[in-house]
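Lines hold sequence, tokenised fold; shown next:
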Amino acid sequence: MPGWNATNIPDQSGRTAVVTGGNSGIGFVTARELARRGARVVLACRSTARGKAAEVRLRAQVPGAEVEFLPLDLADLASVREFAAAYAKRRASLDLLVNNAGVMALPYGRTADGFETQFGVNHLGHFALTGLLLPRLRAAAPGARIVNVSSNLHVLGSLRGHDLVDPEALGSGGGPHGYRRWAAYGRSKTANLLFTHELSRRFAAAGSPITAATAHPGYASSNLHAGAAKLEGPSLASRLAAFTNAVVAQSTAAGALPTLYAATAPGVRPDAFIGPRFGWRGAPVRSRRAGWTLDDRSGELLWAASEKLTGVSYASLPG
């Protein structure tokens, strides 16, 4: 693992990958490097214009790449269902699902289904997508993987028992009063880790060979960080954020390596959390995580709440 980079990605010929948010940043680099190694790649993006432009750009950078754009808006469960149905019409199996897309530190808002935006997009949309694509992943097993992209900033927001017993309150983020956007972001990233933990536990109980893992990019120059800096407004904090994003952050290509490692490296263990060696930057290694992201009871409660909120049941993976 030390020094691991994109040249170490194993041959992906014959494999199909779906990358959410694959039109820009870490998602685009992930899709490009998978295609470079021979994978068929589906770019799952909210914007049709940006998705098609990314498809053209990827083909230019990787001549002969098998790449396709399909629309996916994780803030709208109807769109998630449409994407899953469209994929099922095209392919019988799916080898790799990279749940990369996300939003960061937004002001309070709600998705089309009434969920707090960060929790709705970063967790619930991906929870629903994974469940709907699970039959395709099963058809590709063994060797199928799911990679949920979290953040080392998951430590900013935990999800404990009292947060999880009321699905409606969980989905709304408690409403706009007292809302803290960075804490809400941390909670959504904690949810990514808890989801992976519970998914791995259920796969093991069912004897499934599918591997679910989580990755984080450290501090990588990306649209997420740039957007969060702009939201700070014309202040010392915004200028500091812009400076660190420009000077301290590692490149987008480096930030994609933990995801690519989790997605392709041999021997990745179920529920692994992969991130940069030095926390913020460096080659991918197993990363530290908050203890609450390994709590079985919290994982069970989040799972039950997520099924209720999204209406997507993982009937083949009972608790």
Summary: The chain is about 45% helix and 10% strand. Residues 164 and 301 are 6 Å apart (CA to CA). The mean pLDDT is 91.
